[in-house]
Fold this protein.
Amino acid sequence: SVLIQAFLGFFSALSSISPYIKHYEVLSYDREDLHRKHLRARRATKLQAVTLELDFTAFHRSFHLLLRPDSEAFYKEFTVIGENGPESVELSHLYSGTLEGEHGSACHGSVLHGQFEGSIHTENGTYHIEPFDRYTSSPTDHHSIIYHEDDLGKNEPHGYGFSIFSKQVGLKEVTNQSHLLGEAEVSRVRRTVNESKTSCLLHLHTDHLYYKRFKTVEAVVAQVASYLRAVNDIFDKVDFDGIKLINFKVKSLRVMTREDTNDPLTPLYIGPEKLLSLFSEQNWGNFCLSYLLTNRDYSGVLGLAWEGKTSNWGGICSQHTIFRDGQRSSLNTGLITIQNYGQFLPPRHIQLTMAHELGHSLGSPHDEGSNCGDLGSSGGKGRYLMFPQATDEVRENNDKFSPCSIKHISKILKQKKDNCFVVSDQPICGNHIVEEGEECDVGQNSTDLCCYSAAEPVGVQCHLKPGKVCSPRQGLCCGKNCEFKPAGQMCHEETDCQEVTECSGLSPVCPEPHAKENLTICSQGTRICLNGVCAESVCVKHDLQQCDCPGDNMKEKCHMCCQQPDNPKTCASTTSSVLSRYFQGTSLPLVGGAPCAGNRGYCDKFHMCRLLDADGPIARLKNAFLHFDEFDDVAEWMKVTFSILSFFYMQQLLKSSLFIFIFMKPLWSFQQMNRHRDDFNRNRCILARIPYPTLLNSYG
């Protein structure tokens, strides 16, 4: 059977199943066996602990997939909305994982009716697997096809030319005809960006034409998951001028399973601009973005989206707004179609289309003009993601943003992101926290010796590099050489309540420190340990309660005092004879910062009780400069101060008058004499400059 499977794996279709797939091979592994494995995995109490295995042979090699349930494309409060309202939906058919024995590999997809559909990333490129019956209705012994990403393209010339992602001209015309009321000018003050808000929550609306292509709600959910996984692999690697780990999650999915004649989106022959305009009339203000997924042939238009602008002019976080024509619209919308010139697009093309349109929603125009239009045109790596035309072949730059796009998106993110983005509810590679599914996390640090950073390909990122045993990010018992520290090396110092802890030599994690015996004295003799924590007053050790020391002596109020339970009259210092059998007259000063005087003060470092000033430091400054504390009230202070100021003012006035009388009169006389002399000289100069008429005429 292995030979037969290998032979079938080498088989290449004689006739093309799609103009977008140049070469493919077929799969016929045991679907019933995979379905049974999936059912066992779904029944498991802890889904993440289950591994589903799938083996097959294709392209002259063996594939051994190790899959685990993964629904990270969906928000924790994800809901599916059917024709009758919210419906329960299973996400257990969604998986991600790796290839056994291949470091840095990754795979993600779904298992429905015993068939795996998804993508496999290997060191030799990416493979895609799809159901065979999605491309042909002819009977066949093979249920799936597999093809390499390098084989995506035209099998032979078709007169399509290039496919336009989005008709920006059409969008501009609509924008120019409609103007928002009361648009406030965006503040130019630089805003503080909340780095933890990285998730844009989506509402996706799949119409009946899209549903007809995939036939079940579970299959629609699986398609959406594949789009979001690919999109997030593009966005979360980009540093948008300090804003990192941007991702998208589906919060709500509307699935139209049949045609609704009352729905304005139903008619087949609606142009893309009109369809987006109708979809935008609904209020999508509760979502970061809302996208329509359809299966319509728009003759080269694969997607359309409002470009992200400030305020409500379009893109992320735009609210339902009234236009001058009185119509309300939400411009945080876009649409994607899965058909082009009568042919269904492969999933990879749809994924890139969605990433492209989301780029528009986040504020990026097309890569056009003298500065941006030629980016990626040389070097063989292909155009960048925001180039206005989609190429038939997938190249290296096709899923990357150009520097121009990053600049535009960064600007809009800084202005609008915090208005609607939320804190991610999933483990994020790159946040410096080792979370579930990660071996290490060094953020974007690509120079780390032990760990692959978040900038590396999916399947590698946040995992240990080959030959490395551990990463210091995993724990205190991993050295800088990426190996475990030797057994016996201290990793946790001894404290009042915990013993010293040493590395085991077998793990990067420092073992939990052992707690010292309960009732061990801590905090300079004033408290006791309970379960490894310096938790209770030393009074508790003797079945007493700590109390506020009696008397007015501020020094004594910072001593330890105890009382019989619920009997304040018995409160006494540890130095007193009443408590001598417990403390032998020992004075136990409270540590600095401890409350005293019934929580109205605190103990300073000299163990003196300092009462809190209700007026705070302003009152102390007031007293220091104005000496209010020497007077009974403000009125008295003003009387005294006014008398002093009046005397001082009269004294200065008298001095100034004498100075003017004695010195200014001679100065005035001297200035008058100089003024007369200047007037005489000025008149003499004017007379000397009058020319003779004959000279003027001779030179004229």
